[in-house]
Amino acid sequence: MQENRARDHRTVRNLTLPIWVIGLIPIILLAALVVAFLVYDPTSPFRASFPPVEELTVERIAVVPDGLQVHVVNGGPSPVTIAQVLVDEAYWQFTAQPSLTIPRLGRATLHIPYPWVQGEPLEIALITETGLTFNATLKVATLSPTPDARFVGTFALLGVYAGVIPVYLGLLWYPALRRASQHWMHFLLSLTAGLLLFRGVDALQEASELAGQISGAFQGIGLIVIGVVASFLGLTAVGQWTSSSRGAHGEAFGRLLLAYFIALGIGLHNLGEGLAIGAAYSLGELALGSFLVLGFTIHNTTEGLAIVAPVSRDRISIGHLLAMGALAGGPTILGTWFGGFVYSPLLAVLFLAIGAGAIFQVVYEVIKLIARATQKPLTDPASFAGLMAGLLIMYLTGLLVVV
Amino acid sequence: MSEKGKEIPISRRDFLKASAVGAALVGGVGLARLRPDASPAGTLPPTQGGPDHEHGHDPHSPMANMAVGDVDPAVNGFDPSAILTDFDYGVPTTLPNGGTLREYTVVAADKEIEVAPGVKFAAWTYNGRVPGPTIRCREGDRVRVRFINAGSHPHTIHFHGIHPANMDGVFEIVDPGKEFVYEFDAEPFGLHLYHCHTLPLKRHIHKGLYGGFIIDPKVDRPPARELFMMMNGFDTNFDGENEVYAVNTVAFHYAKHPIQIKVNELVRMYLINITEFDPINSIHIHANFFNLYRTGTSLTPDAFTDTAMFAQAERGILEFKYKFPGRYMFHAHVSEFTELGWMGIFEVVE
């Protein structure tokens, strides 16, 4: 084995080529193969006997006063031409921007002047040149929001209720936490880990659900992997970069940093959730219920608890608490704006994944903190009970909001 | 065409969406702004009507429910406006017994046709058109149809009428490249049809292998403006439901190219239903009534009405006159079919 490696080493050295040339050889060969493939086209017998594969995805149906705007993406291998449009099984006049023929991975917006009825669903079918149909459902026809002052304000308010208020409510536990004993602290920290773990997995599930709705060409699951890994490793790197100052300023400063980290992670997560909220309106998928709002507030209040748990033994200023609350809750508002006005399921998947990755990173940090304090992380009774309690709280408050 | 909605389980994300509105409720200020029925913009536009100047379309105009564009007859190789009146009397010769022999040639061939503007359909055709040639003769004529199968699948011609079993086009399958001669005496007089009877039957019919077969009575019907119309449909995505409905194949053709008739001119419409997948089709003519001769086998009308229903292969002769000039719609009184292409316009002129 060793001998082999030595011989390989010698062989490479004997070539005396610069390393970048050796690195380029496979790429040059690949390019040559691609050219040969395109020139001789061994797949032509297949294509001759099969009709072209078409795949259109309707990403969004916006309702405007005089009709509908349908946003279409071509995720198939070849260009697709939309020949006709059916609304509720009726041919309808329409115009397309920029063109009726959509190139691969291209987009088009169809304007259909249609007398929609407030509150009723609509079924849209796009008939392509080859006679294939692609269907999309508008669950409730209601005027789509436009970014005017009225809707900007309303969406901000939504973000405040969905993200900011629950976070600050949770932060109010801070004085109580400060009086907790060392034993209770371990319990509370692992409770935080449990709460966040549930949240992260939940965000992943939402992302993968949404990934199923976007065009296959955009590889939703791949996007999730990219988002999760990028945010997890990105936050880890930032954490290590600041670790020197952590050492300089002592343990207390480290715990404060961790609290900010958790706030940032939750903030990234709430950005994704805000997107989903804004999208609810823009996609016309609405249901009303004050019971749901109350459940939602309870569900999200745990976010604030998670932030202050690491610093419960320290004295931190009200300014820090306000800043952490803004960092965690504020992005919800950005998310609702974005989701409401320019909703794109593709970006929603990415942001939900980034949020999930951030949450997992925070869970990792919290577990490290517990590990430093107790010798057996998560298996001592207090930590185990805390983790399970965190998961169960999320599960039970989740039950409140499932209709 | 309809597809039943799927049950979608409610996820946390759905809940978030729901709560978003709920949050606005709690917010109070947001309530009036979010609830669509409280927004003046939400209630008024769709019901206000009136032309939309920005896009040049009035969504309530009868012409808003219409395919975009037009089908070029040169591309299809046949024109639905011409099919109205191009009856094929064959090549007549006199038989030794004094009767008339009429010889026709029908060729089956695969052909891509446009059934709505821009929507291609891989059809099977008789003589390169859908519907096939309208074969017309007189009661008692000897009919001889030379059938050549130039298509890629076995086909036949099954005539409706009275004839011997071996002329029925069911058991005598004509393979690609082969021929068959159908020969029989034309009876009874009336409006009939022919179609392919090869299996799978639905597919061989709905892909376009059908046409009209008119046997005139020994004594001519009164002179009239005669129009041939075959109600048909096309399942362009092969899901067992039609995406296109029409008379004479092209959706909305006679809405885009109205049929001109004269005031008080007797119009005789030969109307056949060949629509696949749907149990019935129907016709309604606007602002008028017609005499209906079911199957055209009697010279006494069966009904005086403005709407008539036909199952597949049922047909009837409609006779009517328009008293007033103007534009009159005619269409299936199955609104779904109307909106999916089976609608036309009579332009009645002085």
Task: Note down, in words, how this protein is organized.
The complex is a heterodimer of chains A (403) and B (350). With 403 residues, chain A is an alpha+beta fold. Chain A is built from 12 helices and 8 strands. Chain A has helices at 2-15, 19-40, 44-49, 149-171, 174-178, 182-211, 220-241, 243-282, 290-308, 318-341, 345-373, 381-401, and strands spanning 56-64, 67-74, 80-87, 95-97, 101-102, 107-113, 122-128, 133-138. Chain A has a 4-stranded antiparallel sheet with strand order 1-2-6-4, with no helix packed on it. In chain A, strand 7 and strand 8 (133-138) form a beta hairpin. The radius of gyration of chain A is 27 Å and the shape is globular. Chain A starts with a helix and ends with a helix. The relative contact order of chain A is 0.14. With 350 residues, chain B is of the alpha+beta class. Chain B has one domain: Immunoglobulin-like, CATH 2.60.40. Chain B has 8 helices and 21 strands. Chain B has helices spanning 12-27, 29-34, 40-48, 73-76, 80-83, 201-206, 253-256, 335-339, and strands at 87-88, 91-94, 100-116, 119-126, 134-138, 142-149, 158-159, 179-185, 190-195, 210-216, 225-234, 244-247, 259-262, 267-273, 280-285, 290-294, 303-305, 307-311, 315-320, 326-331, 343-349. Chain B is globular, with a radius of gyration of 25 Å. The interface between A and B is large, with 76 and 67 residues.
- For the record, what CATH class of chain B applies? Mainly Beta
SSE string of chain A: HHHEEEEEEEEHHHHHHHHH
Structural class based on helices, strands and sheet pairing of chain B: alpha+beta
The portion of residues forming beta strands of chain A comes to 5-15%
**Helix segment count of chain B?**
8
Count of discrete domains of chain A: 2
String of helices and strands of chain B: HHHHHEEEEEEEEEHEEEHEEEEEEEEHE
- Gyration radius of chain B, to the nearest Å? 25 Å
Mean pLDDT of chain B, to the nearest integer, reads: 85
Strand segment count of chain A: 8
Multimeric state of these chains?
Answer: heterodimer
